[in-house]
Amino acid sequence: MKLQKLTIHNIASIEDAEINFESNPLADSEVFLITGKTGSGKSTILDAICLALYGDTPRLDGTLMEGNIKENDENKAEEEKDKDDNPKETNKKVTLKDPRQLMRKNTGEAFVILNFIGSDGIHYEACWSVVRAYKKVTGKLQPKSWKLKNLDTDYTYTSDKEIKNEIFKAIGLDFKQFCRTTLLAQGEFTIFLNSKDEDKAAILEKITGMDIYSKIGMKVYEVTSEKE
Hints:
Elements: E1 2-11, E2 14-20, H1 42-54, H2 58-61, E3 68-69, H3 76-85, E4 94-95, E5 109-117, E6 123-131, E7 145-150, E8 155-157, H4 160-171, H5 175-181, H6 188-193, H7 197-208, H8 210-227
Antiparallel strand pairs: 1-2, 1-5, 3-4, 5-6, 6-7, 7-8
Helix pairs in contact: 7-8
């Protein structure tokens, strides 16, 4: 896959940012470094990419912390109306692993938009967003919205299952594999190196093309048999 443009609004420590991977200096750089002070938003850029593609992030997926986040209980009138409008969704607790908690504090909406070209050559736009009721800071946290648009056909996938299937076809990696190879959170590279051989082989085959290893294996077997 090839990243084209990333737009971030109110995610973690980043209020607003746009990264265009197709304009210089990034367009002319094969490798570049994300650097900055602690809390400046380096990891948030990676979180945003993951949210757009998989609706989750490695920092939340890997946490061992448990519990729920206390929601703002101000503006009772709005909350009661919101419960009437969405009786099932608004009563759900926000856990520490819920990606919606990445919305910046004291804001009413947050979103990430990622434009990319899949390994299949298709142009996509992935969007993950969350809002509070009426986009007010004191509003109840609403269910996330996640969409994937095929820009070549103008078709938009809206269900989580459809999006996951299409992302897998476009990238060739599921969320776990993506986090262990393409987007490595702190400490994840060591985990990859210490993985079982069959696990590493499966991931590497996804990245480089499966049949090359099959061909190498067949050739090794052929040469070994000949030598014996």
